[in-house]
Specification:
By secondary structure, this protein is α+β, with helices and mostly antiparallel strands. It has one domain: VTC, catalytic tunnel domain (mRNA Triphosphatase Cet1, Chain A, Alpha-Beta Barrel). Helix content is about 25%, strand content about 40%.
Length: about 240
């Protein structure tokens, strides 16, 4: 099996107005993501897992150079495509390993039962099964947002606006369309992400250097976990 390569990732936090201005410039230079459909956007819901010591959360806060996060992901609240993923960071680069799973397997993971992964015979499934039984990996938080994506062929550049970031409040049933959630950014700030292989083209570098967005160190996972902590402070 050929593993995906590690890529660069830059994240900026933009105001809604700055996002709109940057979108106009990007439309003149890039192509829209063909997977986005007619409306140009799609809804992403992820269920992140963590162990009983909250290792993934605290490693992110501590800035550990090499770390991994595990999640289930669906699109537009459909169970037709369900991905079990590992997002891996190594220094300043990231890669994503992904495996399609059935609704039955996903439901088992949501309920804390990782044994069905043993029947898949895939390295990622084996890895998550080991963590589920050894480190007691369990559902941590549901993360929702709307994504608008653009592509640029040189260096495999992918640019995304992630809007309306919400944290799930009750339960881990990611297939529940009525799952209660709360906004992480009441001011409607947008997370802008740039991913590329080796070299970011200079005209795109110039575009982003002119952008007034603040570099974002936190992940959507940690932002949503923090929001839940604010809603449910420990006694």
């Amino acid at each position: 099996m050929i593993l995906p390569t590690f890529r660069h990732e830059i994240k900026l936090l933009l105001t809604k107005a700055d996002c709109a201005a940057l979108r106009v410039k990007l439309k003149a230079l890039t192509e829209p993501d063909p997977n986005a459909g007619e409306g140009g956007e799609y809804f992403i819901r992820s269920l992140y897992f963590d162990d009983i010591s909250r290792r993934s959360y605290f490693e992110k806060l501590a800035g550990v150079a090499d770390r991994k996060k595990y999640r289930l992901r669906i699109y537009n609240l459909s169970d037709s495509v369900i991905k079990l993923e590992c997002k891996e960071k190594r220094g300043d680069r990231i890669r994503k390993r992904s495996l399609s799973v059935s609704k039955e397997v996903a439901d088992s993971l949501i309920n804390g039962d990782f044994t069905p992964l043993g029947d898949i015979h895939d390295p990622l499934a084996d890895e998550v099964l080991s963590l589920g039984t050894g480190r007691l990996l369990r559902p941590s938080v549901v993360v929702d947002y709307d994504r608008e994506a653009f592509l640029y062929p040189v260096s495999n550049v992918r640019l995304t606006f992630d809007k309306a970031l919400h944290a799930g409040v009750e339960g881990a049933d990611m297939f529940d369309p009525k799952l209660m959630s709360v906004p992480v950014f009441p001011d409607e700030s947008v997370i802008f992400e740039i991913k590329y292989d080796e070299v970011l083209p200079k005209h795109l570098q110039k575009l982003f250097s002119d952008c007034r967005g603040a570099k974002l160190a936190l992940s959507k996972f940690t932002l949503c976990r923090d929001e839940l902590s604010r809603l449910k402070p420990k006694p």
